[in-house]
């Protein structure tokens, strides 16, 4: 299948505008297919919980496809891309499941762990819950952090990934976490995106410290000024990594694309503000079912198109068209 025809509008030039505008102003839904979520809480093996938002398929067919969507850093079912994928999946007659990473559903989780870009064990457990609840074919999409984590799950699972999903797609995934961490700390990126993420992540981590005193040093966390600093203090030690550098090296999906055995779409815009083009793979690994789409425009998880104020629905339309080629029953 040819790369998607998502043409950024002339009235919205540049990677920053194509990242920020869609989140705030573009059309996210088909007017006749607004998302309709219902929430389900899953108890985890370690005594915690995960909240999963479901959208049932608008059809009487016995086994409609299920799209499992993994959100990005500090995302949720309310994120602009979640709304767009849910709306388009409803138009297609598909069901949708969006499992929230811990602490992202609007309620702080009970345990000390949170989530991270290489959280393949959590992704595998979430997919297993979806598989147990759905008899029909299943595909999965991950956006940004969720895309990297989904790829890492497929890499660790190897050929066994096909028993859960027919195909996966990673959108705007930071395949080289160290390169993305450096890029988001530079210039305008630092002023916009670093400040935006830390504004949410630091207070949430401090609430976690209230739950579990001694988990990390509060004064050190309050002084962080970059995502790398935050990962050094919080993300890495809480999830079994030595430090941020160790976390980035072990969690990055980019160097391991040749381990993929399930059909995998990797979609990154070349003007993504904080996923540097030079950090992206230049060609798919030989002999592996990997498709690379690298459009010139789209920003980070934005991909707007159309007349003012634009729409983001071309993104799920293109990705779901690719996934449809690989739909099959995966209940074995």
Task: Describe, in plain words, how this protein is organized in 3D.
- The chain has 332 residues and is an alpha/beta fold.
- The chain has 2 domains: 15-175 and 254-324, Alpha/Beta hydrolase fold, catalytic domain (Rossmann fold), CATH 3.40.50.1820; 177-251, no CATH class.
- It has helices at 15-24, 80-92, 120-133, 145-157, 177-183, 187-211, 218-222, 227-238, 244-251, 314-324; strands spanning 38-43, 49-55, 66-70, 95-99, 138-143, 168-171, 264-267, 290-293.
- Helix 2 crosses helix 10 and helix 3 crosses helix 4.
- The relative contact order is 0.19.
- The model has no long low-confidence stretch (mean pLDDT 94).
Provide a compact summary of the structure.
Helices cover 36% and strands 12% of the residues.
Main beta sheet: strand number and arrangement?
8 strands, mixed
Secondary-structure element order, N to C: HEEEHEHEHEHHHHHEEH
Ends apart, CA distance between termini? 27 Å
Strands side by side in the biggest sheet:
1-2-4-3-5-6-7-8
CATH class of the largest domain: Alpha Beta
The CATH architecture of the largest domain comes to 3-Layer(aba) Sandwich
Provide the CATH topology of the largest domain. Rossmann fold
Defining key terms:
36% helix, 332 residues, Rossmann fold, 8-stranded mixed beta sheet, single chain, alpha/beta, 8 strands
Write the layout of secondary structure elements.
Layout: H1 15-24, E1 38-43, E2 49-55, E3 66-70, H2 80-92, E4 95-99, H3 120-133, E5 138-143, H4 145-157, E6 168-171, H5 177-183, H6 187-211, H7 218-222, H8 227-238, H9 244-251, E7 264-267, E8 290-293, H10 314-324
Parallel strand pairs: 3-4, 3-5, 5-6, 6-7, 7-8
Antiparallel strand pairs: 1-2, 2-4
Helix pairs in contact: 2-10, 3-4, 8-9
């Amino acid at each position: 299948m040819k790369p998607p025809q998502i043409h950024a509008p002339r009235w919205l030039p540049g990677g920053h505008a194509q990242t920020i505008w869609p989140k705030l102003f573009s059309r996210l839904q088909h007017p006749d297919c607004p998302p309709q979520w219902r929430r389900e809480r899953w108890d985890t093996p370690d005594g915690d919980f995960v909240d999963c938002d479901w959208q049932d398929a608008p059809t009487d067919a016995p086994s409609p496809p299920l799209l499992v969507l993994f959100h990005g850093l500090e995302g949720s079912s309310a994120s602009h891309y979640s709304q767009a994928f849910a709306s388009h999946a409803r138009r297609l007659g598909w069901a949708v499941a969006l499992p929230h990473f811990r602490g992202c559903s609007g309620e702080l989780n009970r345990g000390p762990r949170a989530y991270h870009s290489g959280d393949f064990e959590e992704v595998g457990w979430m997919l297993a819950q979806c598989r147990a609840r759905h008899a029909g074919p299943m595909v999965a999409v991950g956006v940004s952090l969720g895309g990297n984590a989904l790829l890492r799950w497929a890499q660790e699972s190897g050929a066994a990934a096909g028993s859960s999903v027919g195909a996966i797609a990673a959108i705007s995934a930071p395949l080289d976490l160290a390169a993305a961490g450096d890029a988001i700390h530079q210039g305008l990126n630092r002023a916009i995106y670093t400040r935006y993420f830390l504004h949410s992540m630091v207070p949430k981590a401090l609430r976690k410290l209230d739950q579990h005193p001694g988990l990390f040093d509060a004064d050190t966390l309050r002084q962080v000024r970059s995502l790398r600093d935050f990962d050094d203090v919080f993300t890495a030690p809480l999830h079994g990594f030595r430090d941020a550098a160790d976390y980035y090296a072990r969690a990055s999906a980019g160097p391991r694309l040749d381990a993929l055995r399930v059909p995998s779409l990797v979609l990154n815009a070349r003007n993504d503000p904080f996923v540097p083009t030079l950090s992206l793979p230049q060609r798919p690994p030989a002999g592996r079912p990997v498709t690379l789409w690298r459009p010139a425009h789209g920003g980070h998880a934005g991909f707007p198109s159309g007349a003012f104020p634009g729409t983001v629905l071309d993104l799920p339309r293109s990705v779901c068209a690719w996934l449809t080629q690989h739909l099959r029953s995966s209940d074995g």
